[in-house]
C-alpha cells in the first residue's frame, strides 16, 4: 500500500480525533471529537456546541492541528500507527450543507437530532477542517532504519 492509501485507511477507520486550537490569549488547548472524514478534497467534520472553548477558539483563529490514533492502545512500546494533520477549521453555516449533515449522520446516526436542531438555532454546530498537510506515522510499514514519519500532501 502507498502512504496515501494507508492514510485514508487509518483516517477512514478511526472514530475519535484530537483537535488542537489556540485560544484568544494564545494558549493551546486540545479536545477530542467524533469525526467524519472526506477525501479529495481532504476534510474532517465534527459536531460541537458553539459555546465550547475550542469552538470559540476556531472563531478567533482557524489554524488547527490534530491527530488520529489508528490502533488500539495496549502497552508502551507497541508498534504505532496514526495520522496527524494541520489545516484551517470553520463552523459550517446552518443552511446549504445538507450533504455534509447527511454524511455525518450516516456515520453517526445518534447525531441526527443534534444536527437537525442546527436549523432551528440549537446549540450544536457542524465544524470542518480543510486539511493542508498530513503526516502518516507508521512503524509497521516504515520501520527503522527508515522513517516512520511520512509527510503526505493534502488533496
UniProtKB/TrEMBL annotation:
Domain named Pyridoxamine 5'-phosphate oxidase N-terminal: residues: 13-134
Domain of life of the organism encoding this protein: Bacteria
Protein's recorded name: Pyridoxamine 5'-phosphate oxidase
Amino acid at each position: 500500500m502507498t502512504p496515501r492509501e494507508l492514510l485514508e485507511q487509518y483516517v477512514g477507520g478511526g472514530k475519535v480525533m484530537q483537535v488542537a486550537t489556540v485560544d484568544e490569549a494564545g494558549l493551546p488547548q486540545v479536545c477530542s471529537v467524533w469525526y467524519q472524514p472526506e477525501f479529495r478534497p481532504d476534510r474532517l467534520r465534527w459536531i460541537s456546541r458553539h459555546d465550547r472553548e475550542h469552538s470559540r477558539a476556531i472563531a478567533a483563529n482557524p489554524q488547527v492541528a490534530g491527530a488520529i490514533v489508528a490502533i488500539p492502545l495496549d502497552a508502551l512500546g507497541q508498534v504505532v500507527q496514526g495520522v496527524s494533520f494541520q489545516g484551517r477549521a470553520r463552523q459550517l453555516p446552518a443552511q446549504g450543507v445538507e450533504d455534509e449533515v447527511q454524511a455525518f449522520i450516516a456515520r453517526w446516526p445518534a447525531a441526527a437530532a443534534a444536527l437537525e436542531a442546527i436549523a432551528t438555532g440549537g446549540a450544536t454546530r457542524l465544524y470542518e477542517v480543510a486539511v493542508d498537510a498530513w503526516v502518516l506515522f507508521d512503524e509497521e510499514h516504515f520501520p527503522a532504519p527508515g522513517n516512520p514519519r511520512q509527510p503526505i500532501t493534502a488533496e
